[in-house]
Inverse folding.
């Protein structure tokens, strides 16, 4: 069976010759041969994509392509980490490396935006050597962003304290975290952690917020007795994120701090429904169908009834990365 390292594109190179062969790679390309250095390639950040050990080759390639699309807007040095459980599959337990680069036209004539990838394969027993090797792969004096993809448990992620503490942002996707494991890791810098599920919901949060902004905050929480968020099988993480966001917004409007939205499974696979329960004649319901790209609002606040249909979508994976990293 192919490893995730073998599934990714690139030219294999000795680990000790990564920097030298990256320079040769750019020198061999007529578009970049005349560039005087890293600054002219507009590299902005160091970006670590760390693939969990249960990541399939197909999934690894999909995330790699997401990183490439991200780099078209934000040129970066990307370090992709590919763990291997069995040392026998890792060239005798040693690290292996590949290099890869792409260039894309910028916004103006003559603007060339380039990204470069260093792909490292390592047996899990050799992770103590990663700190030194990863630090060598970084472009100097640039911030580090760390994306931990598809880790099966927080305990395994917690073993990489160097990356968790050095990164300006640590990106996870709660949709890929087992439900009983969420929140178990004691983050060394919790303020740096960003959830990609929250980031890709940006258009949804904006749409709900714009609709509810038509009502006075006091009217929204008058008689409010509870909130229910019902989700299809594919949207558990997004439902939990929306429940937490809604609670915070309603508390800011004057709802009791003890307000605890109920999150429950139900409906079609790719749907989310949000219902405000009131003790008076007020009502609010949002129903979003992400498979069809449409949503429906219905509300009755202070005697005024409103119905609104609208298009709805999630951010693309590369746009969600940018949202989580920089905003």
């Amino acid at each position: 069976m192919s490893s995730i390292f073998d599934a990714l594109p690139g030219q294999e190179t000795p680990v000790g010759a990564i920097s030298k062969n990256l320079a040769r790679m750019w020198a061999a390309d007529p578009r970049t041969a005349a560039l005087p250095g890293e600054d002219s390639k507009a590299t902005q950040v160091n970006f670590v994509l760390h693939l969990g050990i249960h990541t399939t080759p197909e999934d690894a390639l999909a995330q790699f392509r997401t990183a490439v699309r991200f780099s078209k807007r934000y040129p970066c040095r990307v370090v992709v980490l590919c763990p291997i459980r069995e040392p026998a599959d890792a060239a005798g337990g040693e690290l292996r490396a590949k290099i890869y680069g792409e260039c894309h036209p910028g916004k103006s004539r003559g603007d060339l935006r380039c990204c470069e990838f260093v792909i490292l394969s390592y047996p899990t027993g050799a992770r103590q050597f990663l700190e030194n090797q990863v630090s060598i792969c970084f472009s100097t004096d640039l911030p580090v962003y760390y994306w931990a993809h598809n880790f099966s448990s927080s305990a395994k992620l917690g073993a990489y304290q160097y990356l968790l503490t050095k990164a300006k942002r640590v990106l996870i996707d709660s949709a890929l975290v087992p439900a009983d494991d969420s929140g178990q890791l004691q983050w060394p810098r919790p303020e740096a952690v960003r959830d990609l599920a929250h980031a890709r919901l940006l258009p949804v949060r904006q749409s709900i917020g714009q609709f509810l902004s038509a009502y006075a905050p006091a009217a929204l929480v008058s008689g409010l007795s509870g909130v229910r968020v019902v989700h299809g099988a594919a949207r558990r993480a997004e439902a939990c994120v929306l429940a937490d966001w809604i609670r915070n917004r309603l508390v800011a409007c004057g709802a009791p701090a003890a307000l605890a939205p109920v999150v429950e499974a139900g409906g079609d696979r790719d749907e989310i429904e949000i219902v405000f329960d009131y003790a008076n004649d007020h009502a609010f319901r949002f129903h979003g169908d992400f498979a069809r790209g449409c949503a429906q609002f219905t509300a009755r606040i202070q005697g005024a009834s409103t119905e609104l249909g609208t298009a709805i979508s999630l951010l693309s994976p590369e746009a969600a990365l940018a949202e989580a990293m920089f905003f």
Q: What stands out?
A: The two ends are 39 Å apart (CA to CA). DSSP finds eleven helices and 14 strands in the chain.
